[in-house]
From TrEMBL:
Protein name: Exostosin GT47 domain-containing protein
Region (Disordered): 1-22
Source organism of the structure: Musa balbisiana
Lineage: Eukaryota, Viridiplantae, Streptophyta, Embryophyta, Tracheophyta
Entry-linked InterPro entries: Exostosin, Exostosin_GT47
Segments forming domain Exostosin GT47: 141-448
Cellular component per GO, a single term: Golgi membrane
Keyword set includes Transcription regulation: no
Transferase among keywords: yes
Subcellular location: Golgi apparatus membrane
Length: 518
């Protein structure tokens, strides 16, 4: 429903402000109370835990000042008793957050923030002993079992060699380098695997949305660490001594391995995560492994039953241009109205680029030209996007491209002309707050697009520009990962799919409990 709502907002911007009522807060408190082992059935703390029993239902109704006075002695008491307050009594943080939030003003962009998955973790500035417990499997959003595939499927593709002694590199000592260049835009496999490998480090500095577990029966999902995009980019050509490319051989090996595993058989592959971000990756294996959850750039080259928005995840590209750090440029500081630089002549849905080129090439303050990563192309694009108010993101051979995420990193308001595009995290993120969507049929009408863009007021542009600076972190890949960056947002998107996966798996078992031979 959220995805459909945000899609409608692409072309019809309406203000939506959601406010939680006090009755909603009370319902949330009661739900948490039922989960907390420290609370008696009537809602009060037992005498064995507190110096005196207080019914929290009455505390909630008091003014904020009285709530603080009543709660403070409990904190001193537990601290004096030598029991960690957070670990012992505040195990469910919502018990006291409900009290605080009743007197708190609503957060800025409440309609966005309330949709995002609430972080279940402790404050990063908490005591050191609390940090060591943050990545315990019981405290995380998502528990993941990862296959120990041979290095040829992952870091071996980067040139790392464990010498037969280890499947995984010791990333505490040295993280294998990614080859960079154009390979970077489809590098989600690299960042997600690193995050999983580091998830059980006791001194981990990053957030703990996900943790790797050793027993697959404890896991929410099963992660397949095959760097399929890198395999396609570097090993899809048949070499002189080969009859089949290395990329194709690895896919064949992967299919044989996965379909033989008890984890795959247990769920029919429905709870398995396979990364295939490059549109041409996993070409040979995708139709054999399609019950899994794919992490993709878009659905442009997939049959609907193989990949779709209901079961799969759309992840962002890693942007190639430089992030606009300390951007204080205003409307008048960006002289270019509309910017596009890239391949103009494309096939399939990308033919619109050629049509727009002829419509816009003579417009003043519009930059529309051919460009590539060669000949200093990335640096030129960085300067161009940083000095433009609006940046065109037009469908190419596939519905998506890295250009959208380059625009976000540049704080250049994206103008998206791609009718079939699917966007990362759109169930929790409203792109219409920082992007302009134009239907292809409208964009190719003479004068329509340029009139639309020139009609955007300075105030409206500034609001979208400010929102871009707020959301840009959701699209940043890095190691170690940081709170709500691209890595964590992808894990959160996976976690939102888990209930649907469980439903499918449970339904598939309805008639398999007892088998009677005919």
């Amino acid at each position: 429903m959220a995805v459909r709502r945000h899609r409608r907002a692409r072309f019809h911007k309406k203000a939506r402000i959601s406010r939680e009522s006090s009755e909603g807060d009370r319902s949330e408190f009661l739900a948490v109370r039922r989960q907390a082992p420290e609370l008696d059935f009537d809602g009060s703390f037992p005498l064995s835990v507190t110096p005196f029993a207080v019914d929290l239902r009455y505390v909630i109704r008091l003014p904020f000042g009285w709530k603080f006075v009543l709660v403070l002695p409990y904190l001193f008491f537990w601290g004096y008793a030598g029991k960690p307050v957070v670990n012992h009594v505040l195990l469910k943080e919502k018990i006291f957050s409900v009290i605080e939030n009743q007197g708190s003003p609503s957060r800025e962009h409440e309609d966005e923030a309330s949709s995002l998955v609430e972080s279940p973790f402790l404050d990063e500035n908490g005591p050191a002993d609390e940090k060591l417990e943050r990545c315990h499997p019981n405290n995380v959003l998502l528990k993941v079992f990862m296959y120990d595939l041979p290095p040829e499927f992952h870091f071996g593709l980067l040139g790392w060699d464990g010498g037969g002694k280890s499947v995984w590199p010791d990333i505490r000592t040295k993280v294998p380098n990614h080859p960079g260049g154009l390979n970077l835009q489809h590098s989600i496999e690299y960042w997600l695997t690193l995050d999983l490998l580091s998830s059980r480090f006791p001194d981990r500095s990053g957030p703990c949305s996900v943790v790797r577990v050793e027993d697959s029966r404890e896991a929410d999902v099963v992660f397949v660490p095959f760097f399929s995009s890198l395999s396609y980019n570097r090993h899809s050509k048949i070499k002189a001594h080969q009859r089949v490319s290395t990329n194709k051989l690895l896919q064949q090996k992967l299919v044989r391995f996965l379909t033989a595993q008890k984890e795959w058989k247990r769920s029919g592959g429905r709870d398995h995560i396979i990364m295939a971000h490059h549109p041409n990756s996993m070409l040979d294996a995708r139709t054999k492994l399609w019950p899994c959850m794919f992490i993709l750039a878009d659905f442009g080259r997939y049959a609907p039953h193989v990949a779709n928005v209901e079961k799969d995840i759309i992840a962002p590209y890693r942007h190639l241009i430089k992030t606009f750090v300390n951007d204080s440029s205003g409307f008048d500081d960006r002289p270019t109205l509309l910017y596009f630089q890239g391949a103009i002549y494309r096939k399939d849905g990308g033919s619109i680029r050629q049509e727009l080129f002829y419509l816009l090439r003579n417009e003043k303050d519009v930059h529309f030209s051919f460009g590539s990563v060669g000949a200093n192309g990335i640096n030129n694009a960085s300067r161009g996007m940083h000095s433009a108010k609006f940046c065109l993101n037009i469908a190419g051979d596939t519905p998506s491209s890295n250009r959208l995420f380059d625009a976000i990193a540049s704080h250049c308001v994206p103008v998206i002309i791609s009718d079939d595009i699917e966007l990362p995290y759109e169930d929790v993120l409203d792109y219409s707050k920082f992007s302009i969507f134009v239907r292809t049929s409208d964009a190719i009408k003479k004068g329509f697009l340029i009139k639309l863009i020139r009609g955007v007021s300075q105030e409206a542009w500034t609001q979208m520009w400010q929102r871009l600076k707020e959301v840009e972190g959701y699209f940043e890949f890095q190691y170690p990962s940081k709170e709500d960056d691209a890595v964590q947002m992808i894990w959160q998107a996976v976690a939102r799919k888990v209930p649907a996966i469980r439903l499918k798996v449970h339904k598939s078992r309805r008639f398999s409990q007892f088998n009677i031979r005919k």
